[in-house]
Amino acid sequence: MDSNLLKVFVAVAKQKSISLAAQTLGFTQSNVTLRIKQLEKTLGYDLFHRVPKGVILTEAGVTLLPMAEEIVQKVENAIIQMKNSTHQRLLRIGTSQANATIRLLPFIEKLQRDFPDIHFELYANGTPLVLDQLLNYKLDIAFITGDPAHKDIIVLNQFDDDLYMIEPKSRAYPNTLIGYREKSTHFDFLKAYEEAQGNTHYKTMILENYEVMLGCVKAGMGKAYLSKKIINKFGYEKSLKLTKLPQNACDVTCLVCRKDNVPFIAEYLKALS
């Protein structure tokens, strides 16, 4: 039922006059009459008796009035709250593990400073799983590795990443590829790169800790593919061999959202550097 019809009904009931209600609402008298007739037709009851001095409620109108007043008040309160709260109290943020390590903390600190009334929920996982959560409306925005190129997703911002293959500096090591997670965009690229070089018989090692990954590479247990910011964060930039691989989709991080679920701070997010 259209709440605007109920709003007109409440106005007429309070004023006990169609003409006075029309003045209060800023409508023409004929428009108010039409809307009352529409409501009566929808409900299947007459709501007013026409009397010489105006209108009075029928029994059905008396029954409807308190419910209509409650609905109209709730709608008006909701409109006010939406305007005053800038729409969104909770922002659900997804991120790949790499971005959680190098980008998420300063991002959250800035948001908390600029939007102190917003609450945050965080979800960190591999890019494929983060994207799945976003597409299923379980996240509002997400930091992902690479351009999603998905019809339901828009890119709000992009950040360049400086990624390197890392190897032990001065020792032989087994043919082992070390990854943070099996379902990881960075790990998938490293495996594809190695296979393109003819290396198809490698072993894999999954270590869900970047500092442990770096330590294992330094100890001669295999090679990995990581952001230079992660390497620097843990102080391994001088103790490992770093090789820049050909430019690929992993070299960019995208901040994304669904096309039909754009956060109210979208323009703010687009301006971040």
Layout of strands and helices, then pairs:
Elements (H helix, E strand, L loop, with lengths): L2 H13 L2 H8 L3 H15 L4 E4 L2 E4 L1 H26 L5 E6 L1 H6 L1 H11 L4 E6 L2 H9 L5 E5 L7 E8 L2 E6 L7 E4 L5 H12 L6 E4 L3 H9 L5 E4 H6 L6 E4 L8 E7 L7 H5 L3
Parallel strand pairs: 3-4, 3-5, 8-9
Antiparallel strand pairs: 1-2, 5-12, 6-12, 7-10, 7-11
Structure overview:
This protein is of the alpha/beta class. It folds into 3 domains: about 5-85, Winged helix-like DNA-binding domain superfamily/Winged helix DNA-binding domain (Arc Repressor Mutant, subunit A, Orthogonal Bundle); about 90-160 and about 250-270, 3-Layer(aba) Sandwich (D-Maltodextrin-Binding Protein, domain 2); about 165-250, Periplasmic binding protein-like II (D-Maltodextrin-Binding Protein, domain 2), CATH 3.40.190. The chain is built from 11 helices and 12 strands. It has helices at about 5-15, 20-25, 30-45, 60-85, 95-100, 105-115, 125-135, 185-195, 210-220, 230-235, 265-270, and strands at about 50, 55, 90-95, 120-125, 140-145, 155-160, 165-170, 175-180, 205, 225, 240-245, 250-260. The strands form 4 sheets. A 5-stranded mixed sheet has the order 4-3-5-12-6, with helices on both faces. A 3-stranded antiparallel sheet has the order 10-7-11. A hairpin with a 2-residue loop joins strand 1 (about 50) and strand 2. Helix 1 crosses helix 2 (about 20-25) and helix 2 (about 20-25) packs across helix 3 (about 30-45). The radius of gyration is 30 Å and the shape is rod-shaped. The two termini are about 45 Å apart. The relative contact order is 0.13. The model has no long low-confidence stretch (mean pLDDT about 90).
